[in-house]
Write a structure and sequence with these properties.
It is built from ten helices and ten strands. The protein is α/β, with parallel strands linked by helices. The strands form two sheets. Strands 1-2-5-6-7-8-9-10 form an eight-stranded mixed β-sheet. A two-stranded parallel sheet has the order 3-4.
Length: 283
Amino acid sequence: MRAERLPSWFKVPLGSGERYQSVRRVLASQCLHTVCSSAKCPNTGECWNSGTATFMIMGDVCTRNCGFCAVKHGKPDTIDATEPRRIRYAAEALNLDYVVVTSVTRDDIDDGGASIFADVINELKKSSNSIKIEVLIPDFHGNQSAIQKVINAQPDVLNHNIETVPELYPVARSQADYNRSLDLLKRASDQLGRLCTKSGIMIGMGETRRQLARVFEDLVKAGTGRLTIGQYLQPTKNHLPVQRFVTPEEFDQIKKEALATGFDFVVSGPLVRSSYHASKQTH
């Protein structure tokens, strides 16, 4: 049975005020995309009101068509080599000390865009600000040399979302592979350390608590130290429906279960997203 109406706990602040407008101006001046807008994130108003945003590189068109994601899919534009520098300018203009960078999936590029992630990391490290860098990367189709390019650039946190339980991959992530994602996280953990490795999962798509428990165990075995757990929200009528809205109390219970599995740090709640309050997800 699908869920229809948003519960009361999904009331969020709208975007307004000078800081919100400042973020809009900076992003527009540097012609940058954000996952906030492209993925229809419910926290955009809060985050932009606080002067921060999550950069989305390599355009706003994805080569995959996941059943849960609002990002456009189709044939992307060519890569713009000036983008890493423009992200650094934006981060400095917004006076950020913690930057989250994600991307569309670019299966049309030989290395999936891994070299662009590395360029962005290296460019941000040139900043006069002391910026911590978190990257939320796609799976690069399991290309080991591509994954290594990002690891070698030494981000402070490497995030790759497992997204859902493997039983739902055929409808939610048909072009992805559960074990491939686990292998990526294991490789990152082996080289960067578990506290630098992070993943995220959405719930309310029809998964069971037993299936969730298995994912937690798999992620911990892969060396993942940090986890975000949030409510899936249907972006449009053409996307997978929400099967149920999980209560804040149940999110708290699930957090306890995840921590008991062996994670070092877990953020769990209806509005939690991978990059939501990411700078606070470190201790």
